Amino acid sequence: MIKGDNGFVPSVPLRIAVRGGVDTMALLLTEDGRVRGDGDVVFHGAPTHPSGGVRLTETGHGTSWLELGLPGVEPRIARVLVVGSTEHGAMRDVVGLSVEAFAPDGTSVARYDVTDGSGETAMVLAELYRRAGGWKFRAVGQGYANGLAGLATDHGVDVAEEGAGAGAGAQAPAHAVPFAVPPAVVPAPAPAVPFAVPLAPAPVPAVPYGAPPAVAPAPAAAAFWSYGPVFEPYTRAGRDNDVITVKGLPPGPVVVGLDVRGDGYTGLSVLDRRNKERDTLVNSTEEDFRGRVLATVPGNGTLRLKLEAEGPWRVEVSPLATALRLTAEEVEFRGPEVLLHLGDVADLAIHYRGDDNLIVNIYELGGHDDHTALPEDENVVNEIGERRETVPLPEGPLVVQFEMADGPWRARLEHP
Fold first, then answer.
1. 106 with 238, same domain?
2. Res 11: pLDDT
3. Residue that finishes a domain, picked among 217, 247, 277
4. CB count, 10 Å around CB of 309?
5. Which of 64, 75, 299, 312 is the 20 to 30 A CA-CA neighbour of 24?
6. By residue range, what is the domain housing residue 331?
7. What pLDDT does 335 receive?
C-alpha cells in the first residue's frame, strides 16, 4: 500500500507488526474520534486493553506486535489507530519503518512502508476501521510536529506532564496518561484470546504468525485460529425470495448472518450441485427474523443459498473466527447464533424466553485436523418453551451453536 490506500481485511484476530524500532501505541476510538478514557490507550505502560481484545508485545530486533482481536472489539469502538513515536531524532530518521497485518494463518493481509517521514516525532501509521459490516485497513502516515502529546490530545487523551500541578493534594486528571513518566503499575487482565500468547523473538522479517514458535508451543486453543477459511466477509441485501451465490470462498465452515424485516415465513437452505435443497439452516415464523447460522462451503468454493422471505433482508457470509466469544459477562440474543468457547472447562448458563424449540449443539475442535468440515456435533439442549438450562462444556476450543432459538435468550459462562 501507499499513503492513503485502504482495503478490507478479514474480520479475524490479526497480528500487526510495527518495524523500525519506534515506540508503538494503539488508540481505540469511538465514532467521535476520541478515546473514552485512559483504558482505551494501549502502550508500554498499559500493554493490554481492559477488554483483552488489544495487546502490545515486543519481540526485539526493532519490531513491536499489536495483537488485535477484531471479532472481540467492543461495538462502541469504531477505529483503532496504530501509532509510532520516537524519543531520539525524528520520524524521517527511522530506518525500515513499516506496519504490516497478518491473518491467523500467517498470510500478510496489508502492509504499508512509511517512506515520507519528516521532522515530526509521532505519527499515526495506520488505522483499522469499521465499514459495511467488516473492517478496513488504511495507510495513514499522518505526522504530528508537536509530538506524541499533540497526537494524544487530538484524540481525547489528557496527557499528564511531569511535575505539572505539583503540590499537596494535586492529582492528575482521571483520563491522564503520563507518557513522559511510567504510570502506576496496574495488573493487566489475562489475555482473552489465545492469539495473545507472544511468539518467540525472531529477526526482521518476522516469522509469519501461525509458524511454530522456537521456544514453547502456544496453548492448544490457539490451533482454532487457523481453523476454517479466512476471507473478506460477503454481504448482500434484497427483498423477498431469492437465490444467493457466493463464489471464490475457501472450503470449510462459515457463519451466515440473516436479517429479515417482515412478519411472514423465513427459510434458508443450502443448494447442492443439482440445485436441490441439501441443508436447512433457517425455518422460522418469527417476526423480524435475525440470527447467525453455520454453513459449510463445498470443495468448489461456491456457496449457494435459497432464501424464502417476505420483506427486505440482508445476508452476510463471514469466517468462523468472527463468531462472538463466550465469557462470564451475560449477553442477550434473539434467534439462532454461533458462539465460541476458547477457555478451560466451564458451565454454560442459558435463560431462554421463547415458546418454541431451543436446540444447542457443540463442536469440539481440539484434535480435529480437517479444516474443511466441522467434526460431528453433540446435542446438549433440545427442549420446548421458556426455561433455564446450565450445560457443562469441555475445554475449548469449541463452537457452540444455538441451532434453533425463536425468541430472546441470554447466555454466559460460569467457572466451576
1. no
2. 84
3. 217
4. 23
5. 75
6. 234-414
7. 92
pLDDT, tens digit (0-9, with 9 covering 90-100), for 179-194: 433 333 333 333 333 2
Q: Are residues 212 and 239 in the same domain?
A: no
Quote the pLDDT of residue 296: 94
- Could you give the CA distance from residue 386 to residue 282 in angstroms, rounded to a whole number? 20
The number of distinct structural domains making up the chain is 2
Cis check: omega of the bond before 397, within 30 degrees of 0: yes
Residue 222 falls within a domain, yes or no?
Answer: no
Among candidate residues 184, 217, 250, the one where a domain is terminated: 217
CA–CA distance, 352 with 415 (Å, rounded to integer): 20
* Residue 209, pLDDT score: 29
Between CA 74 and CA 51 the distance in angstroms is: 8
Note whether residue 317 is domain-resident.
Answer: yes
Q: What is the pLDDT of residues 124-133, one digit of tens each?
A: 999 999 987 7
| Predicted structure pTM score | 0.53
Residues 295 and 408 in one domain: yes
Phi, psi of 40 (to 5 degrees): -90, 10
In a domain, 228, yes or no: no
Residue 372's φ and ψ, nearest 5 degrees, are -90, 0
Q: What are the angstrom distances between the C-alpha of 191 and each of 72, 197, 320, 395?
A: 12, 8, 20, 17
**Identity of residue 125:** L
Which residues of the chain have a pLDDT value below 70?
59-60, 159-230
For residue 229, is it within any domain? no
Asked if 140 and 122 count as a contact pair (C-beta separation under 8 A), the reply is no
- Looking at the fold, whether 53 and 167 belong to one and the same domain comes out as yes
Residue 15 CB contacts under 8 Å (≥ 6 apart), including other chains: 65, 66, 67, 68, 101, 102, 195, 209
Phi and psi, residue 163, nearest 5°: 90, -10
pLDDT at 238: 94
